[in-house]
Design goal:
Blueprint (H helix, E strand, L loop, with lengths): L2 E7 L3 H13 L4 E8 L5 H8 L4 E5 L4 H10 L6 E5 L3 E3 L5 H9 L3 E10 L14 E3 L5 E3 L2 E2 L2 E2 L10 E3 L6 E5 H6 L12 H11 L3 E12 L10 H18 L4 H21 L3 H27 L12 H6 L10
Parallel strand pairs: 1-2, 1-4, 2-3, 6-13
Antiparallel strand pairs: 4-12, 5-13, 6-12, 7-8, 9-10, 11-13
């Protein structure tokens, strides 16, 4: 199988300098690409000079994660795309168990490795952990991470398992599957576009998996950290986009319930004196209303499938029932 490891970059020279060497060292069976989103620093020149084996793709604009990868992948000839954040450190033989799974399981279209915290290597990392799931109202969570509760890696998730979504921090997908799904939804810009893609894949019968023998370490928040209201805006807005497009059922009732739950999240931010995040939720909702006609049109063109969630409300289970870890759900 031809594997392309593709790192999306935007003004990320420092991250490339720190993390690109581990990817080059441990990815000898793959071709490594840096897809640059119209950076204005000297990161492209740095890569060309320092890592001449790395191929460069230069996008004409910064279209975020979604458009950035859509544009870059059009010019790459490979069987498997591996999309890697620029703040990922990989480990020896990280590719082998994933390639074997693709070779042995033709129905598996998407895979993620174990994602541990670069700063605290005994802990799972927020963005993906040991594989993602979703509740009825579109709230994502992971084996190893529910909301802000992050588990230590004690081997409790050392089993290969079908999951609902794979993290975009380190995301493997067959090229033909990516093309059949028409890539990422570029209206997302960044955050949750991989969940939308995995949900569309699930609705068409594709399988996503977590492969525990492949491990990477993720810094997280290198582009936008959790304290940035823009991240709150994108997460709340894009989650509503994803729910509206892909959820099976009475969609307006689902949306109404979800808006109430978002309002409760806003009250929590208010009690924490996080005014910027409250404003971000309002902006996310107004942008969602503006885009609702387009999303409903997309919904009619897509397939929706039942039984997409493993728990009805992760908000209720976490905050009311005090179920803080995945294995207690």
């Amino acid at each position: 199988m031809k594997i392309a490891v593709v790192i999306l970059n935007w003004n990320g020279k420092a991250l490339l300098e720190k993390f690109l060497p581990s990817i080059i060292m441990h990815s000898q069976e793959a071709i490594v690409y840096v897809a640059d989103n119209a950076s204005i620093d000297n990161s492209v020149a740095f890569v060309k000079t320092t890592f001449p084996s790395v191929k460069i793709i230069q996008n004409k604009s910064n279209g975020g994660y979604a458009k950035g990868y859509n544009d870059a992948l059009k010019s790459i000839d490979a069987d498997i795309f591996c999309l890697v954040n620029s703040d990922i450190e990989v480990t020896p033989n990280w590719l082998s168990p994933i390639v074997k799974t693709f070779e042995n399981e033709p129905n598996t279209a998407i895979i993620q490795p174990k994602i541990l915290d670069y700063k605290q290597k005994t802990d799972f990392e927020y963005a993906g952990a040991a594989g993602g799931y979703i509740d009825k109202y579109g709230y994502p969570f992971c084996r190893g991470r529910i909301f802000d509760t992050i588990e230590k890696d004690k081997g409790q998730y050392d089993n290969d398992k079908a999951i609902f979504w794979a993290t975009g921090a380190c995301f493997f997908i067959r090229k033909n599957s990516f093309n059949n799904l028409n890539g990422f939804d570029e209206s997302f810009f960044a955050h949750m576009e991989e969940i939308d893609l995995c949900w569309r894949a699930f609705n068409l019968g594709y399988i996503s998996k977590y492969i525990y023998k492949s491990t990477v370490y993720h810094v997280g928040g290198a582009t936008l950290n959790a304290s940035n209201p823009k991240k709150t805006y994108l997460n709340f807005r894009n989650s509503l986009f994803t729910l509206t497009k892909n959820a099976k059922g009475a969609i307006f009732l689902l949306i109404f319930t979800r808006l109430i739950l978002d309002g409760i999240a806003g009250i929590k931010f208010l009690l924490e004196f996080k005014l910027g995040h409250i404003i971000a939720i309002f902006k996310a909702h107004f942008n969602f209303y503006y885009n609702l006609p387009r999303l409903l049109k997309q919904r009619k063109q897509l397939t929706q499938k039942e039984n997409y969630y493993i728990t009805k409300s992760i908000v209720w289970r976490y905050f009311v029932n005090k179920k803080k870890v995945f294995n207690s759900l």
